[in-house]
Amino acid sequence: MAVPLPRPHRDDVFIAVGGMLGGLLLWALGISPRVPSGDLVLWPQRWAALVPLAVTAACEPLRRVRPRTGLLIGTVALFADTVTTGSIVTIVLYTDLVYAAVLYGSPASARRIPWITGLLTVLAGVVPAALWREPQGLLIGVAVGVVALAPASTGWVVRNHRDAAEAARLRAEQTALLAEMDRVQAVTAERAQVARELHDMVANHLSAIAIHSTAALAIGDPATSKEALGVIRENSVAGLAEMRRLIGILRDGGAAREPAASPTLDGLGALVEGARANGLDVTLHTEHGKVPAPVELAAYRIVQESLTNALKHAHEGRVTVAVGQRDHVLDVHVTSPYGDHESPRVPGAGAGLIGMRERAALLGGTFEAGPEAGPDGTIWAVRATLPITEGDPA
Predict the structure, then answer these.
(1) CATH classification of 265-394, choosing from 1.25.40.10, 3.30.565.10, 3.30.1370.10, 3.30.428.10?
(2) Contact (CB, 8 A) for 149 and 119
(3) CA 133, 134, 135, 139: dihedral to nearest 10 degrees?
(4) How is residue 148 annotated by DSSP?
């Protein structure tokens, strides 16, 4: 199936029409580069020069869509022009075809045409001068250089500049795209960090509030209800303080006060005491040196979220928290009684496990959570290994 010829550019059509009209005007005025001579011109009739002119002008619409085809046909027309009285416009149109073949042609054509025209220029100057033994023979080479080599070289220079500009534009677009990707990744990472902090800081207190409020509503004993309301108040105040701290971080320090310091491993005791106040039977074992602040924060949040999950999902029984340091690794191990629940005491969406896993991954550590066989039955175990950066801890 034949491939349809692409539509020529409008400017190329204007060039063809303008060239044809200009050539006709010069022909009507009798202006031509050569005079009839029996030695050099085979067709002395003036109308013969119009044929190469028309063919060359017809090649102009091909200068962008089929540049190599236009150049080949134009070359034949130029040779035909040399055996007539000729037309200056034919020569000018041919130089444009050479220029367009280099500028708009394939990369192979753009490389080869300047070399071919350069070789023809040298041969056209050297061979006639050697055969005629006349220096004037070099003028033929000059003429070929003006008609062929000069436009080919110009097209090569313009094409190089155009390709360089296009490459610079593509690099700019790629740089802008990479910058946008970095911005999106930074925003996503920041949002994930805020989500982890918000969940870890507030979920524990809200879970305790939900559990004790349920107990206060279900039990008719005034003393028990009063105790539950006291726990609710303590967790509400602590949750509000954590929310204020997070808002202060988001505001880059806040307008009136600095946010509280990040939790450390020294605060695990208070965290466990709070879990005991919420009704968990928790034991704590810690053995560690001074570790970097990011590792301390991650370990604290993992323990905090594990205790929150135990409060919401664990059966009655002992919850153990163990934090130990070995070589350049901090191990966090939290276990709680496990059993099949019809539904948790407080609904959850699994965001806590995702947050713990992300915290461990950000430090290059590992995280595992799931049921295991224990000495007293099935337990739910959370294990995190957090590498400690060598050097001075933060």
Answers:
(1) 3.30.565.10
(2) no
(3) -110
(4) I
Q: Using CA atoms, how far apart are residues 55 and 83, in angstroms rounded to an integer?
A: 15
Work out the number of other CB atoms within 10 angstroms of the CB of residue 320.
15
Residue whose entry in the numeric block shows the structure tokens 């509280």: 260
Radius of gyration for the alpha carbons in the chain, expressed in angstroms and rounded: 44
> How many other C-beta atoms can be found within 10 angstroms of the C-beta atom of residue 135?
8
Q: For residues 351 and 308, which has the higher predicted lDDT (pLDDT)?
A: 308
The total number of residues shown for the chain amounts to 394
Can you tell me whether residue 260 is helix, strand or coil? coil
Report phi then psi at 381, rounded to 5.
-115, 135
Q: Compute the distance between CA of residue 37 and CA of residue 34 in angstroms, rounded to an integer.
A: 9
Instruction: Please report, as a single letter, which amino acid is at residue 365.
Output: G
Residue type, 277: A
- The CA distance from 197 to 194, in Å, is 5
* From 57-66, 220-229, 322-331, 352-361, the region with the lowest mean pLDDT: 220-229
As a whole number of angstroms, the distance between CA 117 and CA 129 comes to 18
Q: In the chain, what are the domain boundaries?
A: 10-173, 265-394
pLDDT above 70: residue 316: yes
Provide the token pair at 208.
Answer: 């305790």
Residue 5: which pLDDT band, with cuts at 50, 70 and 90? Answer: low
Please state, in angstroms and rounded to a whole number, the distance separating the CA atoms of residues 375 and 318.
12
Q: Which stretch of 22-26, 77-81, 216-220, 244-248 has the lowest confidence by average pLDDT?
A: 216-220
Residue carrying structure tokens 């968990």: 280
